[in-house]
Amino acid sequence: MSLRVYNTLSRHKETFVPLEPDMVRIYVCGPTVYDEAHIGHGMSAIIFDMIRRYLEHKGFKVRHVMNFTDVDDKIIDRALRSGQDPLQLAQRYIERFREHMAALHVLPPTVTPRVSRTIDEIIDMVSRLIEGGYAYESEGDVYFRVRADDDYGKLSRRDIDHAVSSDRQRFGDELKEDTADFAVWKGQKTATEPAWLSPWGMGRPGWHIECSAMVRRYLGATIDIHGGGNDLIFPHHENEIAQSESCNAAPLARIWMHNGMLQLRGEKMSKSLGNMVTIAEFLDEHEADVFRILVLGSHYRKPLAYDAEIVEQAKRALARLRSGLRPPQGSLDTGPEVEHLLAAATKARVRFEQAMDDDFNSAGALGHLHDLVKAINMARDQGVGGDAFTGAQDTLRDLAGILGLQLSAAAPGASDAAPFIDLLIEVRTEIRKLKQWALADTLRDRLAEHGVILEDSRTGTTWRWQD
RNA sequence: GGCGACGUAGCCAAGUUGGUUAAGGCAGGGGUCUGCAAAACCCCCAUCGCGGGUUCGAGUCCCGCCGUCGCCUCCA
Fold first, then answer.
1. N or C: more exposed end of chain A, with fewer CB within 10 A?
2. What is the ipTM of this complex?
3. Is A234 part of any domain?
């Protein structure tokens, strides 16, 4: 079955056919690095990581490019206020970002270009735009001539006149021919801001041009998928399209994918509103898989309301998925129970793929994983073991892995305390044989106080760390 | 004001090219197992914001209304 993907440009799901068979070129807008990344960035990263993993699962070779905006007004502001070098400040947050992504098990993109290292390509592109009549210099700045682009506004579905009327009230920018025009190159205003030599004097790139230049350099004129948060549709992606398509005379991206916003207390979480939870804060308290389940548990295009309760629910859902990986308790390897389990594993695989093929419906896919967990647990209760059992667990691990879930709980044996806990359990087992229930229960309760959960079963006592 | 999205059980949420029983998770209730507990398993728990319309048939299409949210300025 073929993959269908919702395209913001057409507002429809389209059958996905890459330009080159077996190869997908994808560009995702990355962060402006002037502060700690928040879980909204994490959400976006996880969504595109899921997409990339699934594409790879489908057999595509994925060339995935994500930029770091390391030259920007806010970086400059922040740096100057604290007496730092803007590029060094950006460098530090790039490193932080990478650490956080690794902690969230987000695969590193194939290439992560930065504005500060793409200046030549940007200048080249700006020059071409000027040559083509799509941009003009004005006192050291260069502006894109929006009126020269006949299909400007096609992505965000707005017409220039509206943009103009709302813009005109805010800016009285005499340097522009038209108030809807936007900067592709900004002349240097003060000696303290980073600047590079260009045909238009010292200056730095406008915000949108970097992505156009990076796409062109690392992926070519036309790519398969261009992605980002839906808050980037206008003006950022609209302007990228304008620049790239005017420069290259080719479509920028076949498919535009946009994820919904993470909202906190009913509002979009953003740095400017100051209502944010950083990735570091989240990971201080919860595992990476919890966040991934939280994000992939709803559709990527929908807004996601974040609060303590959905974190708790995601935590439970994770524990539930993990229950499917507990060892078998029997060795039954033939019979209807085994057949049922095998059928469930096959069904899970098929349904998982169907869901994911339908515009990366990860929430539906997770549901099918839960169905498989139920079948595995039922089989365990029925005494199924052997290859059929471990095979079904492999399927679970495999499918979860496509979503980027680790599912590995902190292994009980991995702690220094493990030998002592095992010893206590041995002693308690003897106590239970003597039916000294009060003492046995006390032991269990006291261990629970230290986060060690004991579970008695016919085959003995097992323990695990509290979730 | 312009553009767009969303509204499914107590909570999260899938399903909308119309068609047998509206996924799944969490919480809750009942039961099995257990010395007890935990875990697991079994059973129960919605007619899809509201009002019209199209149709043999609509959560799924159309119109209106209400509500929530996003973009229109930097933002994943």
1. N
2. 0.93
3. yes
